[in-house]
Each structure stands twice: as C-alpha cells, then as structure tokens.
Design brief:
Radius of gyration: 25 Å
Oligomer: single chain
Distance between the termini: 64 Å
Shape: elongated
Largest sheet: none
Structural class: mainly alpha
Helix content: 40-55%
Order of helices and strands: HHH
Number of strands: 0
Strand content: under 5%
Length: 73
C-alpha cells in the first residue's frame, strides 16, 4: 500500500478519502459491547490452562531463572 503524504493533498482529496472511509465503516456489522466482552472472556478462559502469563513458567523451562547465586562471607 503506498504511503500518502497528507500535507500534499488538496482539501477536496482529503474530503474524498474521508467519505470513502466512512462508506466502508457504515457497512461494518456492529455488535453490542456486552456481547463482545462475553466472547472475549470465554476465549480467555478457554485458553487459561496453556497461558503462561496466568499459570507461570515452570522452573526447569524458564530461560530467565538465575543460574547461580552469589555468596558473600
């Protein structure tokens, strides 16, 4: 997709682009936020068992665990 420099466009060109975008957006199917939130919640809960952000990383598979400690006498 080509890059468009908005500073180089005329006001008419900008208006045409805006109308085109609005025509696309008006065709989109709209959903209730409550329905979307329920679906997102169900999706998250379905993958909760495999999610490392929820259950954490086991010590033997954690690449960031400390390899050794420092002992000061």
């Amino acid at each position: 997709m080509p890059v468009i420099n908005m500073d180089e466009l005329t006001d008419k060109d900008k208006a045409v682009m805006e109308v085109t975008q609005l025509k696309l957006e008006v065709k989109l199917e709209r959903w209730l936020t409550s329905k979307c939130c329920e679906e997102v919640k169900d999706y998250i809960q379905a993958g909760e068992e495999e999610d490392t952000l929820v259950k954490g990383i086991s010590e033997d598979k954690n690449p960031f665990k400390e390899k050794g400690g420092c002992v000061i006498f």
